[in-house]
Amino acid sequence: MAKKGNAADLAPSRKEKKGLGQYILAFFLLLYTLFCALPVLLVFISAFTDEKYITQHGFSFFPEKWSMAGMNAVLRYGKQLARSYAVTIGITVVGTLCGLLIMSMFAYSISRPDFRLSKFLSVYLLIPMLFNGGQLAGYIVFTSYYNLKDSYALLIFPLMVTTMNVIILRTYIVNSIPAELMEAAKIDGAGEYRTFFQITLPLLKPSLAAVGFMMATAYWNDWQNALMYITSDNKKPLQLLLVNIQKSIEFLLNNNNVPASVRAAMGGGIPQYSSTMATVIVVIGPIMIVYPFFQKYFIKGLTVGSVKG
Amino acid sequence: MKGKGFWENTWKHRAHVVMALPVFLVLFFIMYVPMAGLVMAFKNYDFTLGIWRSPWCGLDNFKFLIASKKIFVSMTKNTIMYYVIFTALGTFLNVVLAIAIDQCVFKKSTKVMQTIMIIPVFISYAAVQFIVYAFISTDTGILNNTFNMGVRFYTKKELWPTILTIVKMWNSVGYGSVLYMSVLAGIDTALYEAAEIDGANKWQQIWHITLPSLIPMITVMLLLSVGNIMRSDTGLFYQVTRNSGQLYDTTQVIDSYVLNAIFKNSNFGFTAATSFFQSVVGLLLMLFANGMVRKIEPENALF
Prior knowledge:
The complex is a heterodimer.
Chain A: H1 2-10, H2 20-47, H3 51-57, H4 69-75, H5 79-110, H6 117-130, H7 134-145, H8 153-156, H9 163-176, H10 179-187, H11 192-203, H12 205-221, H13 224-229, H14 238-243, H15 245-254, H16 260-265, H17 272-306
Chain B: H1 2-12, H2 14-36, H3 50-53, H4 60-67, H5 69-103, H6 107-118, H7 125-136, H8 142-147, H9 160-185, H10 189-197, H11 202-226, H12 234-238, H13 248-251, H14 254-264, H15 268-296
Helix pairs in contact in B: 4-15, 5-9, 5-11, 6-9, 11-15, 14-15
């Protein structure tokens, strides 16, 4: 896209006219943008809306009474919230970094010319995309045979390697990193590992950023594995707090986390609606904040990966 | 000797073998071993015995599947129906949005708008369900309050195909258009200039230059998606519907059915047969789709 912009600068072309049609087009785009943004905005407004207002008048974009009660209730999750944050961040970071490392090593290996085993490895990589055991078989194998119920491993490993991501990385290595560079490193006496870590991996950065961001979002947003496998409170990731929100709010507020005085201050009732929305903010917030920084990378990454070499 | 050369070659590349090993192992334990678990479809599964030692039961599970027409047919029908709606409408909207963004001359504002349009795809369905609830809940929902409708959305199954379609489009169109935009960015601007000189208006340019250049990508994306007909966005059907039994007739898809069965610990024979059906049909469709892509657009085939 950048290239096109430059070309337009040099030679003013079709992109110049700002007729009525352009304004109508922009108007429709704006409408669609609002369609995308308003539901998210509603979350933020509702989180700070007075609970009584919601029960009486319903959710609203223009509430007449604001309140911090919902947010306060969420912050009083205290320990459990901090714990869940730690779990989610932990699995996201560990899963993404390990996944990126092993997938790029694999992609590098199978893209070596003259490595005969790579044909087999490529097929081996592809088969899971075509055929898989499905959720039920996975569930039974993981819990009864690996005995991994309620372990972090089941939050991390199932999302670690995806065929598509390896293909994206391999495509990038083949198309965008000159093979001569790797040859030259070898002639200069660098071993295979050194060539990979000091030449290939740094050059792979744009692709790693794209794949990494997509992986991180997948980890952050994964509720299904958590719901199926995690049972103990201290291993619950954020998404699970959301899924069980009703239980969470009651449990957490009845728990000893909350001093009696605070409960009394809330009038004995739990600010259900607003605190649910506040929890949603807490859960989706970090992605919203990080996403704009990665946008250009993943747009590029998507583009590169779509054109298979 | 060919064989000997192979081993020599492998030994020479032992560093690459080592580097490929971690992914090999992860795939083996996470993807390959559960494939063997599909034999459950032919067994009378017993918790205490495990998959291997449970007794064989031939095709009993499948007979059960066919006999209980109602559930099986309805969830297969739903799965395919949603696939068709989502794919057809989704592709159409992706393309329209991509062209609209590409045509718009207010580049800076378009960029900001595009950033916002992509955001929904990063919100998990576990969170989306509360947003949907805020709009359509009976007493507190915005729709009911604004228009005084008093519709009990969570009990009206006939409304859900529409609701889920809107949610899905909200979630995925902004992101989906990125791919098509990248194709549009690659079109030679000289083509448009030439067309303008020849007196073609904007619509004619879109019709004769923009659309044709998108056709290969559209074809490839459509064909590749065929392999996933049997799989659905589980979160959409499980979370957004609040897994409400009243809505199952129109919202239960194979994936959400299997998830429910796992939580209820019930009907494993039936579920295993369903799973088997899902995997095998998926495989056949994928092979078919790839074959088609290879015929039309060989460089985009997966294998």
